[in-house]
Task: structure prediction
Amino acid sequence: MSKRLVLAEKPSVGKEIARVLNCNNKNNGYFEGKDTIVTWAFGHLVTLGDPEVYDDKFKHWILEDLPILPDRLKTVVIRQSGKQYSIVKNLMQRNDVNEIVIATDAGREGELVARWVIEKAHIKKTIKRLWISSVTDKAIREGFKNLKPGKDYENLFHAATARAESDWLVGINGTRALTTKYNAQLSLGRVQTPTLALISDREELIRKFKAIPFFGLKIFVDDLDFILKSKNGESRFFDENEVNKIISDIKGKDALVLSVEKKSKKQYPDKLYDLTTLQRDAYTRFGYSPKLTLSIMQKLYETHKALTYPRTDSRHLTEDIVGTLNERLKAINISNYRKIAFNILRQPLKITKHFVDGTKVSDHHAIIPTEESVRGNDLSFDERRIYELVVQRFLEVLMPPSEYEETKISLSVDSYLFETSFKNVTNLGFKSIYIENEEKTKIPNVKARQHLKVRDYKKTSGETKPPEYFNEASLLGAMENPSKYISDDEKKLKKILTETGGLGTVATRAEIIEKLFQTKLMEKKGKAIKLTKKGNQLLKLVPKDLKSPLLTAEWEQDLRAIEKGTLKRDTFIRKMKTYTISVVDEIKKDQKSFKHDNLTNTKCPKCGKPMMSVDNKNGKSLVCIDRACGYRERISVVTNARCPQCHKKLELRGPKEKQFFICSCGYKESMASFEKRKKERSNQGGKKDYVDYMKKQKQKEKKEMQDDNPFAKALEGIKFD
Result:
């Protein structure tokens, strides 16, 4: 009997698909059923090979060997996931398997994950595509009833390959050229370099900014204060003498009411979430990094099946989703929102273009709750926060707008215009989710042409402020929409940037930001993101056009043309090779220099040159400045041993005979003392007894805290993690 093989992107998704399709026979790396086998990748199982795949000489980084431009880029199996690749390959080659179903994430990168495996394994069998936006049982069943032909997604694969290959060509060659030319660990990329340039430009604006003082005027009439307005409607005046003259002119004079205008207005809720806007809100409200938010979203999507596919750049729904909205509302089970969802269901849903518009949806619709009910207690504290953000926005767009009445009073004193305004909510609408009632402002009973006594006046002052440094939320916004940082002269390219979605994709921006922190090209000072000395120097060394978001926008435009079938992948790659040659040539000819900011006074014992202090995920090392020498020695390593004071991981430092532990809290302990303490703990009853003891100790401390703290007592039993 012939079977189909389903390839998911991750084990968790593979197991869910297998359960829904009744593939209950568990094997090593896959599940098998009567007519279906379900297996999975671990993200990418196959990737583009390093330069040494083409020639052993490329193991050594030599400037004269660049650029490296293979005729065809080769893929290799990722060593760490080689075992799973072999399992997937063998399953694909089985004689009873006649069809492959690609069930990886429905997007450009997900297509690449599967197709590279199929290509590497030389499989020529029928390919089908599962394209779903959530992994609920219903979505999986519906998806398998409506599998798409694999041919429909070949252009998506070509675009994904073109993206990967262009990044390899420019990134590998540019990084090797910079590193060998300046004998420093430097890298460039079509997204990370212009992102750094955005930060640099913002810092330059702040550096060059000069505060300009401005002035204003308030007058007090009865219980109201009115603000002076210029003929252009401005309330800030940059000439103090002008304000002083107005004060002199109005002294002792009455005010004449010119008009009392009342207007009914509506405020509509914001659009549904895409990944970037959700990441920005999560940072602003909870301080979550973009990477953490994406990680939480993946769990809510894959494990809890509570939310739809997170890696989307759309903020609208397609028309076919409308029929599922009632079911999604019924599934909302979080106490704060359950009643609101029920009230919405009591009336026919009002569907508008504000949130349903298929023409504004790309690969996936906006992030919304699924039809799968989830209990608050099943979610961690962080998961519940993110889930509630999405639920709240989903409920808001299904509710009526907030309505309010705006009253504007204008008056004149000696021909000078003064204004004040009031807002009174007449119907909370969607705002009733987070506001129970809004206090009404008492509107004064004044009429046009009425004369009023000016009780007092006050000159106000201030000064213009520089733009703020980027934080992780605003940097995400700048990456999504860099067009507002480009001069109006570049109208065509600004349009391209808007259409292509800016720098990177919703799926990669968090990763890019994280990488720039890890490579020490930028750093956080409080919440502000600033370039490091290394980052500033790098920007001076890379070719000018690589710093502009316009270049990556043009490339993205080409990639989308490949997706649509209007541009050949090979044509784009030839263009990228030509560009790579120009990048390497420019770096080779450059006469600039690079100054290391992590040099130490320690000399290399092998060649005598200075050593650099380098941080890595396991600790710190000393590395010879001369890459050709290659000498390195470890300074410290982060261990699994915990500090007895603050319980953070201890660092191990010093030569073997004089090793000691140190903690960031200031705790320090010799190796001999540590071993003695460890032995004593072991003698007291071993690890299990020690764990039990610590558990009881924490319970005791918790009880003491509750006895002293009424808030702790009130929160007892609430699950936060």
About this structure: Residues 295-395 form a domain with the Topoisomerase I; domain 4 fold (CATH 1.10.290.10).
